[in-house]
Amino acid sequence: MSYAQIYFQQLQAILDRIDQAPIEKTITWLHDARMNGRTIFIMGNGGSASTASHFVCDLAKNTRHASAPPFKVIGLTDNMAILSAYANDEGYENVFAQQLASLVQPGDIVIGISTSGNSPNVLRAIEMARHRQARTIGFTGFSAGQLGSMVDLQVHVPSDCIEQVEDIHLVFEHLITKALREMVS
Asked: Is pTM beyond 0.90 here?
């Protein structure tokens, strides 16, 4: 069997085990946030930072429709100047929480993406979000780590293969974006 066949078979097996209910609830929460003028904040590290940036772009651009307000969405990974300033002065574990401290409001949504569920900067930001009464969503993999039990809603990929977890997080992002666009068109 080829590497590609093995990879695709493994990916399909993981997709078959995913609980779809949290994905549907995420769609509902994001739609409600949009319609009620709430802000959505998204963050992650490494490949998850790329997924976070992609998610921000897709929500902001690919869901626009004349019949609905645009999404108010901010990528906490996207401003290198503020990220490096907080990392240098207050520690990398605080780069997301410090950005949220001046922005997040009750009822906003904070999405943390972490394959391990144990990224200290994501965990601290989720703590800040919960303290500020924002709704929290975690995109996790592996055993979900600490993030899985901290968030209000967990969207979990039952795999310990980082590449496949990241692949499926991107699938979730695209699925959610497509659903949100279709809800208003």
From this structure: yes
